[in-house]
Amino acid sequence: MKKFVAFSAILSLFISCGKGDKGELVGVKGRKWHPEKPYGMTLIPGGAFIMGKADDDLANIQDAPTKTVTVRSFYMDETEITNSEYRQFVEWVKDSTIRTRLAILADEQGQKPGSGGGKGGSIGDFAFADVDPEKMTPYDKYMYENYYSVGTDDDIYAGRKLNKKIKLIKEPGKYPDEHYVEVMDSMYLPESESFNGLKTIDASKLKFKYNQVDLNKAVKKKGRKNFYEDAPPIEIYPDTTAWIKDFAYSYNEPMHNDYFWHQAYGDYPVVGVSWNQAKAFCAWRTMYKNAFIKKKKGRDQVNSFRLPTEAEWEYAARGGIEGGTYPWGGPYAKNDRGCFMANFKPNRGDYAADGALYTVEARSYEPNDYNLYNMAGNVSEWTESSYYAEAYEFVSTMNPHVADKKNQRKVVRGGSWKDVAYFLQVSTRDYEYADSARSYIGFRTVQDYMGTAATGTRPK
C-alpha cells in the first residue's frame, strides 16, 4: 500500500508539471522545421506527367510506351557532378585513409596523442583520439569499451576516432619520423610504376565503405533483422583508362592523362565512374553534410542524397513541357539561329559542329525550365533504376521505380557527347552495367523534399 501511495504521489507530481497543455492532446512539441535548399540544387515540384515516347519510336525499341505517372517533389543538382566536386570526395577518402594508417601504426608503437608535441612532431600526434578512456564522456567511454576497442570481425579498428585537428604533412622533406615516411610511402605507387616519374597515388588504396539499407528486403522479412547490408569497400577513384578502352584505334591519351585531375577540367562533368561508385558518392555526401550538422545544435539531419529514379529523371528533364521531345521542347536540336542546343554527335561524326569536341563545362548551353543544365547531351547520367524493356507495363503509377539488386543493368539517360540526337530525347531509355565505367557516363544527385506543399501540377 505504501508503494502504491508513493507511486501515486510521483505520478501526481508529473501531471502537475504539465501546465502548458491544460490536459489537452496537443502533441509533442519539437523544433520548427525550416526547409533548406541544398547548395547547387534546384527544387523540382512534384506532379503528374506522361512518361514515354510522345513521337514515333524511330529505333523501334518499343521499351517506352506512354504512361501517366506521378512523382513527389525533390531537389536535383543543377549540373552533373563535376571533376572538382568528385575530387573533394577522393581527397576526403585519401585524407581519412592516411590518418587511419598513421593512427594504426601509432597504436602499434604504443604512442599516444600529443607525444610529438601536438603539432605533428611525430606519428604519435596522429594516434587515435580515444586512446585515453579516462578523458571520455560516459557515452564515449561505454561505446569505446563495448564496441570500438574490440572492433569487428572485418576491422578491429572499426569505430575508432581519428585525430583530425592536426594537418597532414604532405612535403616529403618535412615528414617527422620514419614511421610517417612508411605510411606515406605505402599510399603511392613505386617510382618505377609512376607516370613520367611523378609521385602517383595508388588508386587501389582509396576505398570507401558504408552500410546500405535494403528496405524491400526488410519489408519482406517483416522486421529489422538484416535491415542493413554490410557492403564491401568500394574503390572510388574514376577509371581514367575509359577514355582509351571505349574507343579502339583512337588517340585519346591526353584525356586519360589530364581530364580528371587537372584544374583545367575542374568544372567539367566527372566520367569513368561506375553506378556503384556514384552510389558511394551519394552516401559520402550525405554523411559529410550530416557530420557538419551534428556539430550544430537545434538542426535536424538532412535526407539522404541519392541517384534519381528513372521517372524522376525524365520528369525533371522535361522541365514542365508536356510532350516535348527534348528538354527545350523540340522537335529540333537547333534553335531559331541555327545553333545546336546541346553537346552531342551531329552531322555524321562532326563532333565539333556543336561547339565541343568531347565534354563541355557543366553549365554550358541553356538550362531547361527547371534550371537544369545539360539534361540532354554532354554526358549520359546514371539513375537508380534497373532496366527492363517491359518496365513501363508493370511499374506503379506513383513514383515508379524498379529496384532490383539482382539486375545489374542500370538505366542511363540523356545521351552524351558521342551520341546521336535520338539518345538526347527525354524519353529515350538506355542502360549500362553497374560495374562499368565509361568516358561518356556521369551522374547527378537528388534529395527528397520534406512535405507536400511544393507540387507543380496541383489545381490552383
UniProtKB/TrEMBL annotation:
PANTHER family with a match to the protein in the record: FORMYLGLYCINE-GENERATING ENZYME, SULFATASE MODIFYING FACTOR 1, 2
Q: What is this protein called?
A: Gliding motility lipoprotein GldK
Q: What InterPro entries does its record include?
A: CTDL_fold, Glid_motil-assoc_lipo_GldK, Sulfatase_Mod_Factor_Kinase, SUMF_dom, SUMF_sf
What are the entry keywords? Lipoprotein
Q: Which lineage?
A: Bacteria, Pseudomonadati, Bacteroidota, Flavobacteriia, Flavobacteriales
* NCBIfam families reported in the protein's UniProt record: GldK (TIGR03525)
Give residue ranges for domain Sulfatase-modifying factor enzyme-like. 40-446
